[in-house]
Predict the structure.
Amino acid sequence: QVRLVESGGGLVQPGGSLRLSCAASGSIFGHYAMGWYRQAPGKAREMVARISNGGRVTAYAGFVKGRFTVSRDNAENTADLQMNNLQPEDTAVYYCSCGFGYYSPTDYWGQGTQVTVSS
């Protein structure tokens, strides 16, 4: 069993930056691939980024366009999502997840953190 807790969300102006963090507890963090997903009102949840258990392989959704960077620190049991040049369409609840499968690391979920991009 893994418990995930996100932090770092908030209100930011267009063009601004936020850094989301995900703290994991309860199991051996380094066994799991990690993912960041988001869900906007009225829309389905979508993958934003994922990172392999060792941190060497990453993937991003097309809409990221080089603006976001996913990272992890297995010694600290954390994973981060650095988001730059945020736009109003990035407004959503962001969730971290983890699982054994790199292509769908969704065995466990955090509670989500709200990101709002607005002037």
The longest strand covers residues 18-25. The mean pLDDT is 95. The two ends are 40 Å apart (CA to CA).
